[in-house]
Sequence to fold (390 residues):
Amino acid sequence: MLELTVTPDLSDSETYERKSAVGIDSDTGDAVVTMVGKAERKMKPDLAGLRRGLREWFARERRELPWRATTDPYAIWISEIMLQQTRVAAVIERYEGFLRRFPTVESLAAAGEAEVLAEWSGLGYYRRARMLHGAARMVCAERGGRVPDGFAALVELPGVGRYTAAAIASIAFGEPVAAVDGNVERVVLRLMGWGSEDAATHRAHLRQAVEMADELLDRAAPGDWNQAMMELGATVCLPRGPRCEVCPWLADCATRGEHPAVKRAAMRTVEMARAWMTRGSRRGEEVMLVERGAAETVMPGMWELPEAPTQQDGEPLLRVRHAIMQVNYRVAVYATDRAPASGCASRWVTLDEAERLPLTGLTRKVMRGMGWLASEKPQAGRSVSRIQAQ
DNA sequence: TAGCCGTGGCT
DNA sequence: TAGCCAAGGCT
Fold:
């Protein structure tokens, strides 16, 4: 495989050329030339101009988000953990409820893990909640309940990596450190024309992007700047269909959104079935749930509907689509009288109890679809199809 | 370092 | 319908 790559180098030159890669297709043997960037960058970007443009854009377009209305480092920390790999809209639904339940780092540290997981249920990546809980206990035990006020100490907390430490340090404490998340990476890669389908080249570009983000950082207002960069990526410089026509950096952008990227692994589809067992009791209608083992790699200790045979007579009560990582599950939910397989902890729970348990997302989705979980709106999405009423 | 860890809305 | 992928971190 022959590959030539011409990569702009910030330190050596004021001039950028269009990047191109020449290679041999491993299947066909044909020569392949990849051109990157609609427009050639002739000059090093005007950093002061870029800063001014983004500042003005952010002052105009900044969204009102719940965590932008506080200066409490604990609340900002919670928001940043929730926002890891999670959409803003999903976090908005949970952020204030979580803070009502655990308003201070002390209250979070004092809670049991199951309580924290129950409040986190549906947000996904449950290890975040466990690490946040552990970090809160560390902060209380070792720092008198005072949230670390700088990048170096923040990044030592479980669940707080470079991005999150930089975000908290800059937003809550005004420390001039660039917070480089997926949005900022994409914005900088496109701005500079650093795109590649090759994984190694991509990694090199990411390292350059971090340096560039640091160079761009508005040190007079790092918290606002970091949020502005992320906001641009989240609302304008979208992964697909970027809205270049409203971008403050349009004139300076090397690619205008034409951005080759490393391809992801394909998803696979798996059929699965769950049992819906209910009974009436003095306490009201109850449903059977089982607890996942503590040794499970995925969602240990969380509660879900019992498994059921995928091949059954009759129509399921409900069909649900639920993707977990690279697997697309097609789930049929059957009414049944049969007890779940022995060996796992099972329980009849009322609606009220279910809402306080750490339920898996799939189980929440099914219970919503069945009209349970009164605290939530009935599922209206297309991922659930009601076959017949219970 | 690459694989793993969840979920839901959009297209 | 089903793929895409998000304010990442850990091992």
